[in-house]
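Handout, section B. The chain below has 212 residues.
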Amino acid sequence: MSSPRATTRATREAAAAGDVNGDGYTDLVTGNAATGSVTVRYGAQGSFGATKTYTQDSARVPGAAEPEDRFGAAVTAGDLDHDGYADVAVGAPGESVGTVTGTGSVTVLKGGTGGLGSGRAYHQDTAGVAGVPETGDHFGSSVRFKDINKNIRADLAIGANSEDIGPWPDAGAVWVLRGAVPYVTTSYATSFHGSELGSLTDASVAFGTTLR
């Protein structure tokens, strides 16, 4: 179901930092859901250097740019395959999957010497990802890379803050996809929601809105 909390504005989830091109400088990654874009401001000595913006119409980025996708609503950076380059995950919580509108998706873009390169999209119709695409789930409303199992590869947590759980609409849920080579893998993927952690599961919760 669609939630009144949905917005096309950039949020506190739409900024991240990491060395995308492996030059030893930390780069700033920002998303803008209103324009459906992600911008990398490359670090350099004394100030930022070059700037590069990506949309779903950019080469090697999956999908096609559509106003309602909200690509860039959430971003995170982390080294998912331990190759020394920060990779970037981008939430598009308004993305349609097939004929299902607003179910949401996440695109992982690989870091490299030339900056962000090829990408791969994940959603609830991806093999190994629990659940099914439903209108207004907003899968990708939040994203966060973190090495949860201490294997030196960043794992990807994904929030869908409008996921329905049983009788509770828009209760929210979180998925975790493990870091691997060359992308995150859906093998051993896990998901959980507020009722499993003793939280209320009603429309006031929006579990997964923020990930840390």
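Note. The chain has no helices and twelve strands. Compare this with the example in section A.
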